[in-house]
Amino acid sequence: MILSRILVYPIKSLDGISVKEARMTQGGILEFDRIHAIVDEKGAYVNGKRTPRVQLLRTEYAPDFQEISIGETGENTRQHFSLSETAPLNRWLSDFFGFTVSLSSETKSGFPDDRTAFGPTVTSEASLHEVARWFPGLPIENVRRRFRSNLELEGGEPFCEDHLFGKPNELKPFQIGEVQFLGHNPCQRCVVPTRDPDRTDPIPNFQKTFMERRRETLPPWSEAERFNHYYRFAVNTSVPATETGKALRVGDIVQHA
Fold it and tell me: Which residue from 155, 219, 159 is spatially nearest to 187, judged by alpha carbons?
């Protein structure tokens, strides 16, 4: 298998951007990935789990990730803001959501959902195609944007990424290019993938259908005991501090036990 796609999400819960190369930070994340988060006055994340309206936001970034262009799905007008002087962006976002929010930033460790398995999430193109087949008419890009994984692999069978985690309480080492990873577990999913990534409308029975198909197609190399339920997709990882500054590049070879 090779690394075929790298996606970073500069602002947690908003659109990602595909890059050809990304370095690992001292905090074990991809540089620029989820280094900003929208929070309310109590410091809680404003994300798709709690606030479906966040899925209506469309974003683009300057090449240095210091500026953002943002607007609403279906509208041609975009607003441009600095990500270093965030007061104007905070006002715009507060107007959009209808309550006070602000942008919080952490460039080293970012804002991962899992503070233990804080590294990039890994899936495969074959798995995305397989899930798309479970939901007729759903394009692969739509599936990709629902699950929002960081690293996509090419050259394996559906759910080949399940090779990258082991038994309970086992951290399974693997390598992509020059970067060492530890595979933790199949990622437990939330309500967000049930909804269209450009809107807030869900596919009826998405979670039930997904769980049934995931169980039916679980490959023999996958550790079944890691699935207390089958609403799991992609692999959670962590990255040792020794990998700080090393780069992942599209085309890197994946090595695993």
Answer: 159
For 2-26, what is each residue's pLDDT tens digit?
999 999 999 999 999 999 999 999 9
CA distance 207 to 192: 10
pTM to 2 decimal places: 0.96
Q: Which CATH number fits domain 2-8+19-28+112-256: 3.40.630, 2.30.30, 2.40.33, 1.10.3470?
A: 2.40.33
Kindly indicate the confidence band of residue 124, based on its pLDDT and cuts at 50, 70 and 90.
Answer: very high
Domain boundaries, the chain: 2-8+19-28+112-256, 36-105
Question: Beta 2-8 vs 254-256: how paired, if at all?
Answer: unpaired
* Contact yes or no for 2/153 (Cβ under 8 A): yes
The residue among 5, 251, 220, 15 whose CA lies nearest residue 126 is: 5
Mean pLDDT over each residue of the chain, to the nearest integer: 96
- The answer to whether 83 touches 35, Cβ cutoff 8 Å, is no
Residue 243, exposed/middle/buried by CB under 10 A (0-12, 13-18, 19+)?
Answer: buried
Burial of residue 132 (CB within 10 Å: 0-12, 13-18, 19+) is: middle
